[in-house]
């Protein structure tokens, strides 16, 4: 029977085809993986192509003006016209400016002192004080490098006739910039605290997402469901160990920030720990929710990447938040990392207190509650 | 009247557009061991899952241990032990750690003693520090049985607990089932093994989601009205293709060195036997085995379903 010994030697196209067809079918059956594979390139193109802008404009600016003369008005109008400064507030009190900077409500506080107009007209070069939030050296630098030009241009049409000579060098106004919090513009001061949030997001969402889908994949979920226990008990029990993991990560990042990168820590440690705990729980609950959607561990990982990508790009970690178009900022505001970055940078670099950060903490809390509720609704007590 | 551990009527489960279980009635008295039989996909697992609250019934009412199937699922869970078909304990945990987990979930008092006793009774003591994932099939089943009985459930639901386990381990396992039953536990166990079915007080036969027949093993054999003949002799292998097609022979199958033919019509069967009488086989009538009955039932219900479709 020579037939029994017959087999094709070398590469068999039929076998390649067999494997190819099998893979194609499997790929098609795993809808979620397929969707994520298509969605990620689209997401990246949109985020990198449209959302990211390294020349941030429309930076929120508060003005503390002691007088409102026509010249001051021209100056303010000129600042707004430049598109770099969004004059969102006129504050009556210089101390409010400090709070706005600390809480992230303003990137610049511009102070126009008493007698500004009078001294300008007399050619005494009055000072224009600009306090800038320099925690992110990139975010404010373009605006600051242009402010002199903007001011001069704003005053040009008022300074004509007899005042025209004031336009000559060195200019009618002396702009004095106070970069706050990170005066030397050290990028690590901004990046390292931010990394805390990025690390926690990446690892914790994935770890809980996978932990629950593992039960589904191995069949142990059926066992768990047949035993007494509410979804809440299961979720809390599952999450607590990872809370510990998050705590260890936090300690490591903070120690490295201090010993290796000499990042200043001017705020309250206990406020930071409280905020970190809130943030960790929000991420763990999100992972748990993902695990109620994903059927396999791989799907859970893919969902994590799908969430992590915008978190990284739209939160203000890699690129200045204010530089993004409005729609991207709206998405960014939904992400807990965005708020956490403001909180952690606020506490460590600016010494921001609870009052300054309450809106950010509230946003993280709302996210957490929504995600927990979603997880409770999605976690089924049956195999239906 | 005896008290019922399970009392359900019209239990049905529909998945998408498939009827997995169709209007099943079950009245299982406390303290008995009932066997659940039927071909793969007959609805055994689905029924068991509905009984312990893992699936919501599409239709039907009833109670399990006196608790309403729909409203009191949490109470049913507390008093029921359910052993899944596939090993579903945690392979990265040791035998003991698995049992401790279960003891905590059920909030057992004297956890340590409970675990020790359970390990002892099931002979798992010397393996308590082994990872569950490293156990062989038989020991895994034993661990699973230990874990689902530790909280002293009133009802034990076992879904093909001995699939893929060697005969010695199966026998040990059944000794444990009878021990638990003697202690007052009600047991519902699904199986494909006829010898296991014969160890049950009562068997229920499902096919295509329908309850086809139930009763004690002798009852079911008697009620079937099936007649069996056994042929022995040289060259019995050549007999089957010829006799299987004759009128009245519903099915023919080899058993060891013999061939069994079964049917419901005695006259036709005897005629079939006579037609091959000259070939030197020894024929004698035998009592149909449970397997004969089930294969006949399977063919019948399959034909019924096909004729309805």
Q: Your description of this structure?
A:
The complex is a heterodimer of chains A (about 375) and B (about 300). With about 375 residues, chain A is of the alpha/beta class. Chain A folds into 2 domains: about 60-180, abc type-2 transporter like fold, CATH 3.40.1710.10; about 185-380, no CATH class. Helix content of chain A is about 65%, strand content about 10%. Chain A contains 14 helices and 5 strands. In chain A, strands 2-1-3-4-5 form a 5-stranded mixed β-sheet, sandwiched between helices. The longest helix of chain A has about 30 residues, at about 185-220. Chain A is elongated. Chain B is an alpha/beta fold and about 300 residues long. Chain B has 2 domains: about 5-215, Rossmann fold; about 225-310, Alpha-Beta Plaits, CATH 3.30.70.100. Helix content of chain B is about 35%, strand content about 30%. Chain B is globular and about 75 Å long. The mean pLDDT of chain B is about 90. At the A-B interface, α8 of A face α2 of B.
Distance between the termini of chain B: 40 Å
Overall number of strands of chain A: 5
Give the topology string of chain A: H per helix, E per strand: HHEHEHEHEHEHHHHHHHH
Provide the spatial order of strands within the biggest beta sheet of chain B. 6-7-8-3-9-10
Q: What is the count of distinct domains of chain A?
A: 2
Helix count from the secondary structure assignment of chain A: 14
Strand content of chain A: 5-15%
Given as residue ranges, the uncertain stretches of chain A (5+ residues, pLDDT < 50) are none
Summarize the biggest pleated sheet of chain B.
Answer: 6 strands, mixed
Which CATH architecture of the largest domain in chain B would you pick?
Answer: 3-Layer(aba) Sandwich
Biggest sheet overview of chain A? 5 strands, mixed
CATH C-level name of the largest domain in chain B: Alpha Beta
Radius of gyration of chain A: 28 Å
- Inertia-based shape of chain A: elongated
Strand content of chain B: 25-35%
Spatial arrangement of strands, main beta sheet of chain A: 2-1-3-4-5
Mean pLDDT score of chain B, rounded? 89
Shape of chain B: globular
| Poorly predicted ranges of chain B | none
